[in-house]
Every structure is written in structure tokens, then in C-alpha cells.
Amino acid sequence: MAKIELDLAHAYLPDPKKDSDYALLPLKMAFEDGGAYALLGPSGCGKTTMLNIMSGLLSPSQGSVRFDGHDVTNQTPQQRNIAQVFQFPVVYDTMTVAENLAFPLRNRKVPRDQITKRVGQIAEMLEMSDQLNQRAANLSADAKQKISLGRGLVRSDVSAVLFDEPLTVIDPHLKWQLRRKLKQIHHELKLTLIYVTHDQVEALTFADQVVVMTRGRVVQIGSAADLFERPRHTFVGHFIGSPGMNFLPATVVGSGIQVAGVSLAKPDGQVLPEGAIKLGVRPEYLVPVLAESAGALPMTVSQVQDVGTHVMLSATFGGLTIKARLPSDSAPMKVGDPVWLQVVGAHTCFYKDDEIVA
Amino acid sequence: MQLVLEGISKKVGAQKWLHSMDIAPQRSAVTVLLGATQAGKTSLMRIMAGLDEPTAGKVMVDGKNVVGLPVRERNVAMVYQQFINYPSLRVRDNIASPLKLRRESGIDERVQALAEKLHIDMFLDRYPSELSGGQQQRVALARALVKGAPLMLLDEPLVNLDYKLREELRDELTALFANGDSTVIYATTEPGEALLLGGHTAVMDEGELLQYGPTAEVFHKPKSLRVARAFSDPPMNLVAASATENGLRLEGGQTIMIDLPEVLGGNFTVGIRANMLRESTLDGDATLAGTVDLAEISGSDTFVHAHTVAGELVAQLTGVHYFDLGSTVNLHFHPSQVYVFDSKGLLVKAPARRGER
Questions:
Q1: Domains of chain B, with CATH numbers?
Q2: Do B216 and A308 touch (CB under 8 A)?
Q3: ipTM of the complex
């Protein structure tokens, strides 16, 4: 197992000039030994490029990859000692489940008794012990993908295990059970696991640290709570959460914050740059407050959606629309009703040029 | 346009694809067909469109039976899961094609107006292959919407898009439907999508129409366990229970005080929606102690999977919460917030809702 350090950039074009020419903009970051990481972002954000650079399938066009301080930039996946699990199961149909799981160990000439022990351990974790002697051919797609996962995890001497959207083929009802397995296994085996996905549930559930990417750039590395409470970039606020964070253009003037022509008091002790900023507030943290409450705007209800488990309220003021997620037992409201919503409060984040400033 | 299906059924070989059903979708509004794959949503839509004939029953459009009338003579627009565009036509001409076929007037203005609404007006002179998946699906939607057909059928139109795009497009579609005159039928497998679309919902399962009504009403008052199962995400927590003197005794021993409408006796199933389970406790709560199997974090919510004496449960907590695997958790709920189903699976009691009493 290894600590992985990246100090690199990658462009698929020969002579990159502007930012959009890069698949990965220059970045410097480290994946700690034994950590569970997810690379999360929409398609085209560079997450698969980063994974392929770590595995050695792709050489970065500039910079280096280090494993425990050693430069491995020009090494193959095999030399780097990387295990990989892909979207679709890669399984030898003619072999039994046990033989499939043992395959990576046999290749490395691991002694037979150690193989049996390790295969037994992995099968137990994946709840496949009773299927060890079955042929892989007749198994369901998710059982096959479990074997692929097991094969990725079976070697204890790997530098890291890389997963590329491994739950794509899994039936939605079974997904949470496999997520749970992966989390348990990380707990028990303490391998360095890196997981690529565009699914926020998968990333936030699996990883201790989520690397959020957009347009070739890493915009935040943090825990699920960090990404929810304190998105460092407006993209993170927008991408995490459904619906995402509300953003309101505002201007800081002295001790006040101007929002849509209304001056709200700056919270005590809050240091904000003068000029144009954006307020970010999550729909989950907006509740109707008493008229004239500090930090609140007098808004008008424009849409009320009973979404079953809660009520989604849209409200407008001075050309702004914001969404508030209210408990399902909130007082009923209808379109046109006045409502005061506290946009400057304990959970409000402040952004300048899309980067958090407070 | 008023569409009424009377006694519709569909058999293919020996298999019943659709059991006999009647449904009259709300005119000029959205009706959601909600059900898992194979529930019969697409079969029903194809009959509504005139692509297939029912084995029995009538399809009435404004009082006239249109079974047998070819699709081209019906004024219907359809959108599928896969984005279908003409690759050799620019976006502008893709959207305009149904209007050109019908030699309609004011084509340019109508294309422009709709493209603006769907935020693709800047791509009108590009080819579909130069657009992202989300933009291509917008073009396909625009082509279906531009006709202003009185009947629009959308078969899981957002399923192949990533969830942020789905959110945006769903909002835009909801606004377009609300401002239009078309009768819209929208098929989805996702309960959350049905709730966001609002309107009316028809819950389908294995070729049967289980319940039809205003979306929120069907969600809050499912007629049966089958409807409750189909219309819950995460699944409704279901616990076997038996009647006691003044309430119900849940599997595992916990008793809850609850007024049942009549003394029915026997066995029941108690349903507790995931968002009704809390970590914090309020007066009069019942409590189920459990062990955490996994806490799934979606961003807006944390879904705690736990096993308890009453069985496996899922609790939906707002925001981000951490639980170690195997840690203990107490889940609380108020007895007034449960559903009760009888031994036949029919609803006996639904939670009282604010503003209803």
C-alpha cells in the first residue's frame, strides 16, 4: 500500500494553451495510505483521466506520479502494483468462484495455503462462501460483479485498488448492500481505495474524502459534511444536494450586505470583502421566519410542491428565486403568499469569484 | 382534449400485459404513470398513441373511439428514453421538422421561442452530434413540444441523463406543461420524480392499474400495500403487527397506542415512512432500538439502514450524519404517523395530516 502523490497536468492535445485544452489542469495533491477516496464530478470533468494516470494506463503530459515518494510516472499498472475494478464484470466463466478469486494470487505465485486462506476471507466478506465451488458462468450480473470486486481486493500487497463506477450494473435495490460491503471491507482491510463515480450518493457514502471535480479542476477535497456545510466552490454547492445550494448575488457595502435592493446586516464578526459577492444557502437550512427578522428577505411564494417526505417551496423577490425544503408537517402555504426567508444566517456561505471567502 | 380509456386490456399470446382498466387522464394537465419496469407503462402509452391496438376496450378522444385510427391521423407527440434526432439536420431544422411536414406558418418564431425556453437557442445552427447528451435530449423534447400536440406522451424522458441535468430539465418541463394546453402523460419508475411533477398519478404494477388520483393524495393515502411499496423511495418500512386492547403490538414486542377505525382484530402491517423515523425524541414517541448497517449519504439526506427487533428499517435524516457500521441507534416515531394495512393489504389508517383535521 502506498501514499500516492500527484503533481501534474494532462492534455490530450499536443500543445495546450488555454484552460479548456486541458483534461486535467495543473494540480498537486496526495492520497494518504489506507484512505477511502472518491473522485466525483459530471462526465467530462477529468475524473477518469486522473484515475488512469494513477493506475498507469495513461502518462501525464507533464509532471509526475509518486508512490511512497518513488517516481512511478513511467511505470505500468503491473509495476505499480495496482488492482482495478471496472464498470462491467471481468470474470472467467469456465472457472469456479474460488478459482476466479484466487487468480491474481496464483499469478503472483503466492503459496497455496495462503491463497486458500485469503480467498476464504474475501468470500466470507462478500457473502459468497456458499458459492465458492460454483462455476461463474451461470451467476447473475451482480454476483459476477461481486467476484470482480473480490478479485480487486484479494491481494493484500497492492499499492491501491481503483474502482471505475463499479456498481453501474448492479440492480438499484442491491446497491446499498454492496456499498455497505465496500465500506466494511475498507474498514477491515485498510487498503487504499479510490473510487470514480458521477453518483453523489455513491461517493459520499463510500469515501472518507471526496474529490469534487469540474472541467479538469479539483474544486474541493473534503468529507461529506464539509461538502454539504461548507462548499469551497459554488460548483460544489450546486452539485451536492438535490436541489443544490441557492446562490444570491449581493454587494458588501460597509457593515451591510445589499441583496436585491435590500440592505441586510453583516453577521457579527464576519469579515467580508467589499464589492460583489454571492450568498450561498442550502434549501435545507431555509425556514420561514417572523417578518423583519434579521437577515431575512420578504419574499413571495411562487411554487409549492408536496414532494411527500417534505414540502419544496419556491419563493421570489426582486428577480431572485430561491428554494426552501420544509418539513412535510409545515403550515400549508399557497402561491402568492408572503414569506420571510432568512438568507443571512448561521449556515450561510459567502463566495467571491465562485470561491468561498467566509 | 379529453382522453378516456374504457375497459382497456392487452394480451400478447397467452400473457396478459395489461389487465382491464379504465382511466381518464386530467385534461390539459400532467398524469404520471408510475411503476417499476414491466409494470405496463409503455404498453399503455403505445395504446394511447395509437401505435398498438388494445385487445379489448375503447380509446375515446373527445367522445369518439379512435381505436384503429392510424397514428398519423392522430395529433400526438411522443418522447422516448433515447434521444432521437436527425443527425444530418441542424438543431433548428430538427425542431422545425414536424411543423414543416404539416406546412405550418410562423415556424421560425415558434422554434426560436421554444429553444429559448429550453436554453438551446445558442445551438440552433449546430448539428446534434456537436451537443452534449443533455442538450441533445433538449432538442428531442423541443421537437415534440413544438407541435403543441393536444396529447403528449413522454416515456421516461430523463432516465439517461445525470441527476443534475434531470433536476434542471424536470423544472423546465413542469413549467412548460403548466403553461400549455396539452394533456401530458409522463412515465417514470421514480416516486420522487412523480412527486416533483405533481399533477395526477396512476400507480401501475404488473399490468394492473392500482390507484389513480392527485399525486400527493395517492402518496399520502395509498389504497394498499402494493401502492405504498410502488410509491416509496426509500421503501416504506413495513412491520408485522397484531391488535391489542388499545393499539397494536409490533413484531419484536413494542406496542403503540393507536385508534383503529373499527375493531378488526387479527394481523396487520404497520408502515412507517423513512422520513418519519427520527433520532430525536418527542412526547408520545415509540422507539425502536437498532444496529446500524450503513448510513448512505445523498447530500441532502442521510439514509440510515438499521436492523432492529422489528426488522430492517431505513430512516431518512435531513443533512449529513455519520454512523459507524455496527453502532447502536434509537429510532423514534410518533404512532399518529404510521400507516396501518389489514391482512389483505388494504389501507386501514393513514397518518393524520396538518390542515386536514
A1: 3-222 (3.40.50.300), 234-349 (2.40.50.140)
A2: yes
A3: 0.85
